Amino acid sequence: MAWRNWLAYLEGYLILTISGDDPEGFLNLALAQGISLWDITRHRNGSIQAKMPAGEYRALRSLARQSRCRVRIVDKRGWPFFSRRLRGRQVLLLGSLFFLLAIYLLSTFIWVVDVRPENGPLRRVTPDQVLAAARAEGLKPGARKSALDTRTLEYALERRLPQLAWVGIRFHGTRAEITVVEKAAPPGEEAVDRPASIIAAKDGVIKDILVINGEGRVKAGDTVRQGEILISGLILPPRPEKKPGEAAAPEQPPPAPRLVRARGIVRARVWYEGEKEINRRQVQEVPTGRQHTTIMVQTPGHRYILKGPQQPPYTSYRQENKVVALPSWRNFTLPVELIITSYYEVQVRYRQLSYEEAVSTAGRQILAELKEKLPPGASITGQKIVPLTKPEDEIVRVRAWVETEEDIGQVVPLSGKQ
Q1: What are the beta bridge partners of residue 112?
Q2: Which of 156, 157, 170 is nearest to 112 (CA)?
Q3: Which portions of the chain are predicted below pLDDT 70?
Q4: What's this model's pTM, rounded to 2 decimal places?
Q5: CA–CA separation, 404 vs 267, rounded Å?
Q6: Is residue 161 classed exposed, middle or buried when 0-12, 13-18 and 19+ CB atoms within 10 A define those classes?
Q7: Which of 316, 353, 379, 418 has its CB 3.0 to 4.6 Å from that of 358, i.e. a possible disulfide?
Q8: By C-alpha distance, which of 119, 378, 415, 398 is closest to 268?
Q9: Which residues lie below 8 Å from residue 20, measured CB to CB, with a gap of 6+?
């Protein structure tokens, strides 16, 4: 009976109280004339309460006179009466609609980003590094969920953080959860307290060094190469000094060196370099606004066009394909796909860049590529662009440098000479 209740609400209904000499006779007359009555109940004082459609109320007047009964409306319910009440409360209605719209719009954004390790606490990366990498790829508080592709984000985070073996991203309402799994540590790094040194992961000039545990081998201003020891986990004991006039002490075996796990922060100035070529004759595609759409069904070995042209209708165009697969049932997938191809007409225009414009464009492109390679936490302290070709050349080539300040320390187990 749920459908009947919904229909009655949409049309509007009345709750009546019928009292007088013969309420039962009134009901019999109403039912005989086809008037709908439901939820009929009798009160202790002899009156009867019932519900009826609002549109049939006028027919009750003659029935009430015939049965010598009095009919009184107790309540009016349903959408027609509710909408009338709202007509005088436009401000309240608009406020409610605005509130619901605001809630809906806010729910389409990401406001919280969390990092959840899958297998215990993180050892090779920190949650802040994962959040920094996600922020660089566009996953941050305030980002619109519809503009984020989770699969693309997962691949991008795996590229930025090679220490991770797997990354999964899920949206829970306005919260984004990044689930990460670290790669298995190589032999010698399983134990956190196992003796190890910190070496330079890349070339650079030392800016600051903070030794927490171990023996520092470099100082601020030193130039280091990749693989050079920065903080050694092999601590050599100090040699005793002989004072003038003191008799020579008998020879004793030197004390054994201590092995520790080096800990510290080594920040250095690092340079990234790259080159870029660009043709001064640029090709631009300008949309004309005209488009055609082709809809086809693809089965194994065949394509059937349902609508649109078989071949692209334009000489110069931009094409977009959308493939819609039929839903699978259990483990069976129908080998049928719906392919929607849109052709957008474009006008090809040629533009000759000046030498300065070509240098600027190539410089921006190579700088953007270099910045994509920067590790999380690296801060840019300078950048430079130098042209390598002459102003009369058609192909312009530039070289760019990006200077950063970053932590170049890499923990390696103790082995060999330290």
Answers
A1: 175
A2: 170
A3: 1-6, 85-93, 184-193, 239-255, 326-334, 415-418
A4: 0.44
A5: 10
A6: buried
A7: 353
A8: 378
A9: 26, 64, 67, 68, 69, 70
